[in-house]
Specification:
The chain has helices at residues 2-9, 15-26, 62-74, 108-116, 121-132, 135-148, 174-185, 188-194, 216-219, 262-295, 317-323, and strands spanning 34-39, 45-49, 83-85, 105-107, 198-202, 207-211, 223-231, 235-243, 248-256. It is an alpha+beta fold. It has a single domain (2-323), classed as Beta-lactamase. Strands 2-1-9-8-7 form a 5-stranded antiparallel beta sheet, with helices on both faces. Strand 5 (198-202) and strand 6 form a beta hairpin. Helix 4 crosses helix 5 (121-132). The protein starts with a helix and ends with a helix.
Length: 327
C-alpha cells in the first residue's frame, strides 16, 4: 500500500513539478538550454522544460554518426569486422583522440568503441570518410537522416561535435535529440557500444585502455547509454537511457552551464539526467498500473504484476554540492 501511494503521488509530472525541478538547479546557478524525458518505446514525452530551445550538442553529435553506421550494418552495407584505413585527414583533429596515424588500419568495431567511450574525434572523422568518402558528404547524410527523423531544428556541420570560436556549430534541441535516441534504442546492438564502460583499444604502438565518459553507467541502475558532450560553446550536455527490465526511458539535458566551472556543470548535468530517468520510470510504472486497474474487474485476480522501477537512492541536493569537488 505504501508503494502504491508513493507511485500514485508521483504518477503525473505536472508543470509545477517541472518548474520545481528547474528551480532547484537554477538556485545553484545552473542554466540549461532544455531537457526532456521520453518513453523509449513510443517517444511519448514524460517530462520536459524548454525542449525546443536551440543549443550546441558538442560530442552528443556523435550519436548521429553512430546511427548512420548502425543502419549501414543493419542493411549489410558494412560489417563490424571490416577494415578501415586511416587517412591523413583523420589524424590530429584536436580534442579527445585515440591518436590515429595515417596508414594504420582498424576494424569498424574498434572505431565505434573509440567513438563512444572516450569520444574520439579522430575516430569520428575516420568513420565519416570510410562511410561517405569525405567528411562533407557524410555530414550531408547526417542532416538528411535528421530531417527524416523529424529533427526539424537540427543542423550538423561536423561528424563529432568539435567546433571552436564563432563556429559554425552543430545545432539541435533536446526534443530533436530525443527523437535520435529513440531511433538508436530500436537497434539493440547500439547499446553494446554505448553501455560499455571500458575497452582495450589495440593501437599499433600501445594498447589504450578506453573509459566511458558517461558516469551514469555505474551510478544509475539499468543505464546503458548513450553519450556525453562538452565544449566551451556547447557547455555540458548528455543523452542517456536506462531500463528496469519492463520499461525504458531516455533523458536528454542540453547546454548545462554553472558559475562553478565545467566539472560542476557536468556533475549537475548528470544529476539532472538521473532525476529525469527516475521520474520517467516511475511515471511509466504508474501508467501501466492504472491501465491494469482499468481493464481488470474489481473482484478478479490480477493477471499481471507491475513491478516498481529500480532507481538509485535519492541524494539530497546538499550531498551533490559536496560531491561537486570529488573529481
Amino acid at each position: 500500500m505504501r508503494w502504491l501511494l508513493t507511485i500514485l503521488s508521483l504518477s503525473l509530472l505536472t508543470v509545477s513539478s517541472h518548474a520545481a525541478l528547474q528551480s532547484k538547479y537554477s538556485d545553484a546557478g545552473l542554466t540549461v538550454d532544455g531537457f526532456i524525458c521520453v518513453d523509449a518505446a513510443t517517444g511519448a514525452v514524460l517530462s520536459q522544460h524548454t525542449p525546443d530551445n536551440p543549443g550546441h550538442p558538442a560530442s552528443v553529435t556523435k550519436l548521429m554518426t553512430m546511427l548512420l553506421v548502425m543502419e549501414d550494418l543493419q542493411a549489410k552495407r558494412a560489417t563490424l569486422k571490416q577494415s578501415v584505413k586511416i587517412t591523413r585527414q583523420a589524424t590530429g583533429v584536436g580534442g579527445n583522440q585515440v591518436w590515429l596515424a595515417a596508414g594504420e588500419t582498424f576494424t569498424l568495431e574498434e572505431l565505434l568503441y573509440a567513438l563512444m567511450l572516450p569520444s574520439a574525434n579522430d575516430a569520428a572523422v575516420a568513420i565519416a570518410i570510410d562511410r561517405a568518402g569525405n567528411v562533407p558528404a557524410f555530414v550531408q547524410k547526417m542532416n538528411q537522416r535528421a530531417a527524416e527523423l523529424g529533427m526539424t531544428r537540427t543542423h550538423y556541420v561536423t561528424p563529432n561535435g568539435l567546433t571552436t570560436g564563432a563556429g559554425p556549430h552543430d545545432t539541435t534541441t533536446a526534443s530533436d535529440l530525443a527523437k535520435l535516441c529513440v531511433a538508436l534504442c530500436k537497434i539493440p546492438e547500439t547499446l553494446r557500444f554505448t553501455g560499455t564502460q571500458k575497452y582495450a583499444f589495440h593501437h599499433p604502438q600501445k594498447t589504450l585502455d578506453l573509459e566511458n565518459h558517461n558516469h551514469l553507467l555505474k551510478d544509475f541502475p539499468g543505464c546503458d547509454g548513450l553519450k556525453t558532450g562538452w565544449t566551451i560553446a556547447g557547455k555540458a550536455s548528455i543523452a542517456t537511457t536506462a531500463h528496469d527490465d519492463q520499461r525504458r526511458v531516455i533523458a536528454v539535458v542540453l547546454g548545462c552551464d554553472s558559475p562553478l566551472g565545467a566539472k560542476p556543470a557536468q556533475r549537475l548535468r548528470d544529476q539532472l539526467a538521473g532525476e529525469l530517468m527516475t521520474e520517467g520510470l516511475t511515471k511509466l510504472a504508474a501508467l501501466e498500473l492504472k491501465k491494469a486497474q482499468q481493464v481488470t474487474p474489481a473482484n478478479a485476480t490480477p493477471t499481471k504484476t507491475v513491478s516498481p522501477p529500480k532507481t538509485t537512492k535519492e541524494k539530497g541536493f546538499g550531498d551533490w554540492l559536496v560531491d561537486l569537488f570529488s573529481f
